[in-house]
Design goal:
Number of domains: 2
Distance between the termini: 43 Å
Helix content: 10-25%
Shape: elongated
Order of helices and strands: EEEEEEEEEHH
Radius of gyration: 21 Å
Bound molecules: zinc ion
Structural class: mainly beta
Oligomer: single chain
Length: 168
């Protein structure tokens, strides 16, 4: 999917698309995000905004996250809106991207073409919460034997379990 950014009509350009779960490729920097559990539907609108091109969009899907405490996968519904601005530099028609977050990569620009799926990918990564928990009261793993305390009770000292709670 490629959009020619030098040719956006003044009334804007809208597109709606669906990405299947196998579209997602794992990211080493965000390995708590394991993939998509359901197809992702997205809507994007591009329109000229002064010398820039605004990209407004929304997406919804269900992600597979890995719990920080017990390391088990769990499903997490994501539905989010976003707006970013792209600007075309005055020289050679190269594209420059102005974003509110400094750490966004510019992988979604290829010359004068935009790959909207890459924007969606960036937005998904940005939406991952600081702490991923399969449930609020996840008991995590036993620090002694490593068993999942949500599913089993081990016979290790219960003082470990208490201190685990207090530290988190
Ligand atoms: Zn958990
Ligand atoms: Zn144990």
């Amino acid at each position: 999917m490629r959009i020619d950014l030098t040719n956006i009509p003044s009334e804007g350009k809208s597109l709606h698309f669906t990405l299947t779960p196998d579209w997602w490729k794992s990211d080493l920097d965000e390995d708590r995000l394991m993939g998509l559990e359901a197809p992702l539907s997205a809507s994007i609108k591009l329109y000229p905004a002064g010398k820039k091109i605004a990209v407004e969009g929304s997406l919804s899907t269900r992600l597979v996250m890995r719990c920080d405490r017990c390391l088990e996968p769990y499903g997490w519904d994501l539905s989010t809106d976003f707006r970013i601005y792209l600007s075309i530099a005055p020289f050679k028609g190269e594209l420059d991207v102005e974003l509110s977050e400094d750490d966004l990569s510019l992988d979604f620009i290829d010359g004068e073409f935009l790959d909207p799926a890459q924007i969606i990918r960036e937005q998904i990564i940005l939406s991952v919460p600081m702490k991923t928990l399969c449930r609020k009261d996840c008991k995590g793993l036993c620090p002694v034997c490593g068993c999942n305390l949500n599913m089993t009770r081990c016979s290790c000292s219960s003082t470990y379990e208490t201190s685990l709670y207090q530290n988190s």
